[in-house]
Input
Amino acid sequence: AVAIRMRPLNNAEGNNERTWKVLPKYASIAQTTRDGKPLSERITGRTFFTFDKTFGEDTNNKQVYNSVAKGIVNSAVDGLNGTIFAYGQTSSGKTYTMQGAGNLEQGMGGEGGVVHMAANDIFSQIVQKQERIFLVRVSFLEIYNEEVRDLLGDPNQTLKIREDPRRGVYVESNEEVVTDFDGLLKILVRGDKSRTFASTAMNERSSRSHTILRITIESREKDADEGMDIENREPSSDGAVRISTLNLVDLAGSESVRHTGATGERQKEGGLINQSLLTLSRVIVALGAPNQTHINFRDSKLTRILQPSLSGNARMAVICCATPSELYLEETRSTLQFASRAKLVKTNAQVNEVLDERSMIRRLQKQLAEAKR
Ligand code: ADP
Ligand code: MG
Output
């Protein structure tokens, strides 16, 4: 699903007029004159867009989450991969949407974001599914200037992306097993701190970097004798283990790709081109094209890491954040254009079951069986 979220005007935009009007009933966004009249397309370029969902200024995080993210989170617990992106220019509300209004620690106390509500839903789903055993682990990565860093490891070290015929594309990052909401939140806070310490110009960096919070959920059916004392149990059944990953991605500010996009026009501003964001745009265009040709996932770290999720076997939501302010008319139009292209991407997620040691549950079982011998 692709959604647009317009945030309220901020102080700096306070005296400026709104140029975009959200029509939630029609899941549409229209460009208007200062007195709210619709504009003619011929004069200004595209002025009317329709999406799966549109959220106006009075929407809160809970409404956004329930409407576009919750279904993906719950199906991740059932074994389907999922990816939720926040896209938009700097200051458009990406982090507000993903991490909430207050600081991360406040969690559900402040207005939590997608990550808080996802963590909450994952563990409440798990508690309800008595017939299965779950294992949840988390990793937290940052991509800045085409370097991948582990926010749960040494932030001064860069990580390599590896490829293995069996495992596919992966990054050797730290993974932490978590067993409840608070545990997951602690990890998030730790990762966020590591990000701040590693940087001298935090603002510049945060607008140019991507963060990927990856939650891997494994589960298998409980054995009939699961409740018994461990000494009396048969070695565990060989049933398949479901594995799914849920990626929660807070993207770099999209203003750095404003002048590139579909036309491929060189960007006019100075500064580094954000290779990852640019490649993501191109990959999205290619994925949505009727005749898919070669897709260049390898052109950036972000698309390479997310390749398994972008290739179709994952449910996907893109939450595009924007300001209605006239000051950023073109940035917002460019975000709406990206969102229109993302709408064309079709996915077909399947439950992933494995029988080998790709699952941590399986590896732990084996260790346990060996220790007993
Ligand atoms: P981004 O991550 O896209 O750069 P932020 O999420 O940090 O932007 O938002 C920029 C500022 O706008 C923050 O101060 C944030 O609290 C505020 N803000 C963003 N979205 C909203 C919203 N929907 N309602 C109220 N304030 C918001
Ligand atoms: Mg941000």
Q: What stands out?
A: The chain has a mean pLDDT of 86. The longest helix spans residues 61-77. The two ends are 50 Å apart (CA to CA).
